[in-house]
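Quick log. Single chain, no ligands specified.
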Amino acid sequence: EDPKKIDLDRDLELWLPLQDGFRDYSKNRHIGEVMGNLRIERDGAYFDGQGDHIIFPSFDFKNRPFAIAMWVRVTGDFGNYGILQQRAANKKNEWLHLMLRDRMNPFFSFYVGNTRGERTFRNSDGWQHLVVQFTGGAREIYVDGKLDVSMRAAPYQGKGGPLVIGLTPKWTNVPAMDFEGYLTDFRVYSRSLNRREI
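-> predicted structure:
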């Protein structure tokens, strides 16, 4: 793959601009189910931290590279937030999730063995661009176009389970809340992105 080539439509599986509704602008035209009081405001989709979420059918991430990109603006003060998850099973490498934890750092995992970013996503930080991806051999987190962390990892093994945006995994050992803030330009790719694309 040419690292200088930019083609943001190639292998784009889901694209939610979240500016004029909840329509998927990718070629797939996935139909999502909007739950709670989720609404489109001037800055994007506002999640109130009280159960607002969007549910899409399962995406095939098993044994393959993929990337998920979005703009994020946190408005809450709590330390742990769930942003997205796809749960196939309560087993190692079968529960994909992205959270903000500890000091509001991004945590990207397939369940057991977190990849933890160093950048923070506090409400005072404003808009930040976040990309999480699996390259085929590593989980990576990019913030504002720069690599935050890369960690060797085995491929995701989950089969099935809806992609849920906005809810936290309900774990008793990791207290967390549903996402509180704005998301816009949410994208899912069935490949990893090169640095110029990010």
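The mean pLDDT is 94.
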